[in-house]
Amino acid sequence: MGRIEKVSPFLVMDILKEAQSLGDVVHMEIGEPDLEPSPKVIEALERAIKDRNFSYTPSLGLWELRERITKHYYDYYGVDVSPSRVIITTGTSSAFLIVYALLLDYGDKIVLSDPSYPCYKNFAYILDIEPLMVNVDHSTNYQITPDHLIDIKGFKAIHISSPSNPTGNLYQEDNLKALCQFCDERGIYLISDEIYHGLVYDKKERTVLEFSQRAIVINGFSKAFCMPGFRLGWLILPDEDLVRKAELISQNLYISAPTISQYAALGAFDYEYLEHVRDTYKKRRDLLIKELDGVGKIDVYPEGAFYLWMDVSKYGMNSYELSIRLLREAKVAVTPGIDFGKNNTDRFIRISFAKDGGTLQEGARRIRDYLTR
């Protein structure tokens, strides 16, 4: 089987396409924030346009934005990061591709969790890297632990996500420390996708940079900052030698991240507004859990992100069949769990609460009425 043949399609995109053709569908399938970015982002964007900032930036990104991101790490986490270690990327997807190409060669192995965001596995296949899927479940709060890794041989990197898509689970501090120690002692790279930082509802999230000098962080502006269409992310690498090598990849991949998006992002670190965003999604999470009480089993309590990972196996259908029926017969779109792996994922659907309260109530009503009729 060729590399591209191994890349799995996003079934949710098929559902979205059909949903758009049906009309009167409640959309709970896509993980896209419905809130606008901070007004300060819009002001910065307007200034960039007025000032005619339309040229390429350096491939590593605007120095001012790299500095602003490092200030964020000091203000929010108490971590000192040099701006020279930060790369501005075209969304986080390109950051994944850069990191995989940077650290791993043909045939190398990377550990991923199952379930997890499907792009991780697909990028590995595209680059002829072997993904080693580790089955996780509620017994470890859907987290990879060092105990999972003891008997796995020959891998060069681990990629985790906290909070995660699709479950919303948050890696606990003691486990983050243990994973960092495990990787540091063995010369393994720990890659942490922290795109949902800022959308953690009941405690303060921790970055792996607090526990390891070798860890790699990927984050961006699409989720907590409500800027998905700006296509802007960032990557923090351990040292400037890796940064230089990553720069060579980025120059060939996209030259530089979108210029006006970078200028706009200078206004994104509006903590009062970001707190409003977090509080809004917390209320929506609590509302949706209440509205779906008894309909399915919430297998892991979503401490972050904006998803419910709900076990619907009691209805006797696999997740894709159930998702299609909910779409066509109840007019509500959700994501089938099988998009996220093979580890019992046919039992689950992912429901996004990145919608206003009225939409969530109506979507929950349609799901409940259809499944409990």
From TrEMBL:
Swiss-Prot/TrEMBL keywords: Aminotransferase, Pyridoxal phosphate, Transferase
One term of GO molecular function: pyridoxal phosphate binding
Pfam families: Aminotran_1_2
Cofactor: pyridoxal 5'-phosphate
Any one Gene Ontology BP term: amino acid metabolic process
Signal sequence residues: none
Transmembrane feature ranges: none
Domain Aminotransferase class I/classII large, first and last residues per copy: 24-367
Family as reported in the entry's similarity comment: Belongs to the class-I pyridoxal-phosphate-dependent aminotransferase family.
Name of the molecule in the record: Aminotransferase class I/II-fold pyridoxal phosphate-dependent enzyme
Protein's organism: Hydrogenobacter sp
